[in-house]
Amino acid sequence: MATIVFNEITKRYAGTEAPAVDNVSFEVPEGSTCMLVGTSGSGKTTLLRMVNRLIEPTSGAILLEGKNVLDENPIELRRRIGYVIQQVGLFPHMTIAENIRITADIAGGWDKQKINQRIDELMDLVGLPPSEYRKRFPRQLSGGQQQRVGLARALATDPAILLMDEPFGALDAITRARMQDELLRIQRDVHKTILFVSHDIEEAFKLGDQVAVMSQGKLIQLGTPVELLARPANEFVSKLVGADNIVRQLQYLPIDGTLDNRPEAVSSAHWGDVPTISNQATLFDALLKLLETNAPALAAEDPQSQQRTGYVTLSSINKEISQLRGEQSSRAESRI
Length: 336
Ligand SMILES: Nc1ncnc2c1ncn2[C@@H]1O[C@H](COP(=O)(O)OP(=O)(O)OP(=O)(O)O)[C@@H](O)[C@H]1O
Prior knowledge:
By secondary structure, the protein is α/β, with parallel strands linked by helices. Helices cover about 40% and strands about 20% of the residues. A hairpin with a 6-residue loop joins strand 12 (about 300) and strand 13. Helix 3 (about 95-105) crosses helix 4, helix 3 (about 95-105) packs parallel to helix 6 and helix 11 packs across helix 12 (about 285-295). About 35% of the residues are buried. Adenosine-5'-triphosphate binds near residues 16 and 38.
């Protein structure tokens, strides 16, 4: 059970008044990705680094597999937890294979043949074919490729938990998107429990099963991207996640809230003819398909059973967005 449990965790640095992390409690379920977002200095890195004991908490507990990390040997603990940061820190005089091997060697318990096989597997996994890249040196790789080696190295001992602190922050937008896709693909295969600090809300929404929003050391809201967009806890979260950004709402909100059973746009004679769309699609997918097909409505279908669950039309999408905006502005008014 590689669940990470934060239990009333607080960190006060010596000589500072306000705590860097202030009584934070939440869980990252096994095999899921939790993104930590928030303004600069809100305590994200401090929280992350308390998991592998690079920083010690002032009070509270962090439990892994039900055990308090403070009861474990920090070196052993770090061998079981992958850690990826922005500054990859590869050894310049070692080849890529040797750079990956060194982590596996440190962790111990692997024979030579197994380690060699593992290096090849990892290089394939992060999209660096071993035949081409095994013998190269870090200076012969691009920044994005070095970042991939950093990820391969963190995965070398097959840790159940990965801590990632802005690992793609220094990459250009295209390489960053590629690395994010790579991580999603890897995660579909290997199901690590991932805690990931990001400054990029698009990245947080793309990668996160859950997003934890922090401000001034406190956990302000924890939720799925859809929950944060549809029901931000306060103005700060709303601004941070861009809850009033219509494009983002369309991109992330699922169509299941908009379904109409008998849209006027479809005459009863044409019920069977309208194009179909998965009922797990987003409003944006539906909008595109409505525009592309020029159809008055789309029939939403369960992809497994192929049963129709309702219809989406331009007016049902509009109604959903207007309703959300109405809810958000009345929430904002009630706070004034
Ligand atoms: N070693 C330290 N000693 C004293 N204060 C520290 C130390 N490290 C961090 N802090 C303070 O703790 C607070 C939280 O810092 P932290 O690095 O965890 O925030 P963050 O959310 O990761 O920030 P950023 O997004 O800018 O990286 C900040 O106010 C910071 O100045």
